[in-house]
């Protein structure tokens, strides 16, 4: 029993660190890539997507457990999370192409600059 509790606590800490670091990185990228005017809308959308992504699989597993049984549903859920993890790891390992702004700067470094803000005001 104690071994199960230790594994549960260690797994919870690792999962919490992963979610926290991912959310922190996501919010930093959003902050750097969006203008102050649009930032609140983009942050709101990111939170809605994040909470939906965390809740829908759990709700679906709860509904499937009634007809498939808890053990089969758990195996399916673990396989689903494993596939998503492999896809995410493969995507994270790929080199990212930086979009240019036409003036030699990356889109991320140009975000928030006076040139970037002026361009946003004129393009409707």
From TrEMBL:
Residues 95-124 are annotated as: Disordered. It comes from the Bacteria. The chain crosses the membrane at residues 6-30, 42-68, 74-92. Keywords: Membrane, Transmembrane, Transmembrane helix. The keyword Coiled coil does not apply. SUPFAM superfamilies: MFS general substrate transporter. InterPro entries: MFS_trans_sf (IPR036259). The keyword Transmembrane helix applies. This is Major Facilitator Superfamily protein. It comes from Actinopolymorpha singaporensis.
């Amino acid at each position: 029993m104690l071994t199960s509790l230790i594994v549960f606590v260690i797994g919870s800490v690792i999962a919490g660190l992963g979610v926290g670091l991912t959310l922190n990185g996501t919010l930093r990228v959003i902050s750097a890539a969006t203008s102050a005017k649009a930032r609140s809308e983009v942050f709101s959308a990111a939170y809605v997507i994040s909470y939906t992504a965390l809740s829908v699989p759990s709700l679906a597993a709860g509904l499937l457990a009634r007809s498939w049984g808890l053990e089969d549903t758990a195996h399916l859920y673990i396989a689903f999370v494993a596939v998503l993890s492999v896809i995410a790891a493969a995507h994270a390992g790929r080199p990212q192409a930086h979009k240019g702004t036409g003036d030699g700067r990356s889109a991320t470094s140009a975000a928030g600059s006076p040139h970037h803000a002026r361009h946003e005001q004129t393009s409707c």
